[in-house]
Specification:
single chain, mainly beta, 5-stranded antiparallel beta sheet, 3-stranded antiparallel beta sheet, about 10% helix, disordered C terminus
Length: about 180
């Protein structure tokens, strides 16, 4: 998991002030659960992880609303994954420095969309990733419980093409197998 290696730093556009347990540090602290997650505070907020100045070969990401399965709200909407090659990216890195990998839309809140999903894509060289998230505020902001990133996960995990060409989403059984790749 590149998000947990030495020198990796979580960042976000903002965070809701009403619940201090939902912090930027919750994006890559290695602890699953609602009390260790992030929620944005503005429309189309974003969260991300810097891998430092040296690019890594990135081919998969994973995130969930609550990877323990306790909470199933705050996950509906469109998420857009981006990467950059700017050294040490952060919340102030200009929008023009980010390249879109693609988007995925979760049509509703619920158990099927709230737990950790792993997505493979054509590998890129990246110094950081950014996930644009739906909603805003304490009322409806998307919740991210760990933003994990790594190399492409070998089969049997199916490739999910985040671009408009579509693809298949990992099933829970496959996600359990893929979870070890981020350990």
């Amino acid at each position: 998991n590149f998000s947990r290696r030495a020198g990796a730093a979580a960042f976000a556009r903002d965070v809701i002030p009403a619940a201090p347990t939902h912090s930027i540090a919750g994006l890559n602290n290695g602890t699953y659960g609602n009390a260790s997650s992030w929620i944005g505070n503005s429309l189309n907020s974003f969260c991300g992880v810097s891998f430092g100045a040296t690019p890594v070969t990135l081919g998969s990401v994973a995130w969930g609303r609550d990877n323990t399965g306790q909470f199933t709200d705050r996950c509906a909407g469109t998420y857009t994954l981006e990467y950059t090659t700017v050294p040490n990216p952060n919340a102030s890195t200009p929008n023009t420095a980010w390249t879109t990998i693609g988007s995925v839309t979760y049509p509703s809140n619920g158990a099927a969309y709230s737990t950790r999903h792993v997505y493979n894509f054509t590998p890129v060289e990246a110094t950081g990733i950014r996930l644009r998230c739906p909603g805003n505020s304490f009322t409806d902001g998307a919740c991210i419980d760990e933003l994990e990133a790594g190399p492409t996960i070998a089969p049997p995990t199916p490739v999910f093409k985040l671009m408009n060409t579509g693809g298949t989403m990992a099933t829970p059984a496959i996600m359990a197998l893929a979870a070890t790749a981020f350990a």
